[in-house]
Every structure is written in C-alpha cells, then in structure tokens.
Amino acid sequence: LNILNNEISGFQKNGISLNANDTTPIIGNISGNTVTGAGPTTVTAQNGIQVWGKLATGVVSNNTISGIYYINSEGASQYWTATSILNYLSEDLEISGNTIIDGQYGIYSFGTNTDILNARFLPSRKIISSLSILLPSTSSNSSLCAQPGTTSSRS
Question: What are phi and psi of 133, to 5 degrees?
Fold first, then answer.
C-alpha cells in the first residue's frame, strides 16, 4: 500500500493509519506526506502517522509532521499523549528521514524492532517534549540515529 505525497489536515484522531489485523499482513510505504495536526488541543490526543499490529510492515520516510500536541485536563483520571509517529507492535518497520515540528512526542515505538534513522525535530515553540524519541527498554534490537542538534533520547 503506497501513501505518497499527500497533504493531510483537519483530522480527528490519526492523520494516516496503517493497521493490520491478526491474520492479514499489510506492507506500507508512507512517504513524502505533509501531516498537520490541530496544534495544542484538549479535544483528542492525535497521532500524525500510526502503524499498528505485528503484521504491519514497511517504511515511514521523508514525511513532515507538525502540530501534534494534546493538553490533558486538570484532574483527569487518565493522562494521554499525542505522537507524531506511533509504531505499535509492528515487527519490521523502518522510520527514516522524517521532520517533526511542534510535536508532543516525536516518535513512539512500542514493543518492536524498529530502525529510526535521520529524524529531524524542529521545536519552533516551547511545547516540544524533552523526550522526542521513546523506545521501551524491551526494544533491544532498535537503532537510533538523529541529526545533530535534535532532541532525542532512549529509555
């Protein structure tokens, strides 16, 4: 499935979703897109690009994602976060060459073996989280390479 060179804005939850079920694999090439979120909002915790499921594989490359930020309500019983690129359980995904502007979390990769290469984080406002790339400690085979001057860490 190719998702190439689109301009996406005005969405509710996810700008682009590549979701696999438990029995049918899906291979995606998500490249060259511009995804613009609502900016700081209390409406929903948006994701710019989401890849979900163990059978979802492919490449997320050379996209520009901006304005993905969620503001939790004071006293909320659960706290949520917005993520520019969310990889949830995809076992074979390359994330490379993406530019993330004004994102709460730049890249969140959960339970996966993901290569993250040449990510650019451009905090034009002070709403960028200090933790732009988050890889759970269980992702021992993941690699991380961010461009100089970016905000990135591994936990």
Answer: -120, 125
Query: What is the distance between the terminal CA atoms of the chain, rounded to a whole angstrom?
Result: 32
pLDDT tens figures, 21-78: 889 999 999 999 999 999 999 999 999 999 999 999 999 999 999 999 999 888 888 8
Determine if the pTM surpasses 0.90.
no
Asked if 132 and 106 count as a contact pair (C-beta separation under 8 A), the reply is: yes
Q: Name 52's Cβ contacts closer than 8 Å, sequence gap at least 6.
A: 17, 18, 19, 20, 86, 88, 89, 90
Only one residue has tokens 């290469």, namely 117
Report the 3 state secondary structure along the chain: CEEECCEEECCCCEEEEEECCCCCCEEEEEECCEEEEEEEECCCCCEEEEEECCCEEEEEECCEEEEEEECCCCCCCCCCCCEEEEEECCCEEEEECCEEECCCEEEEEECCCEEEEEEEEECCCCCCCCCCEECCCCCCCCEEEECCCCCCCCC
Nearest to 98 by CA among 135, 152, 44: 152
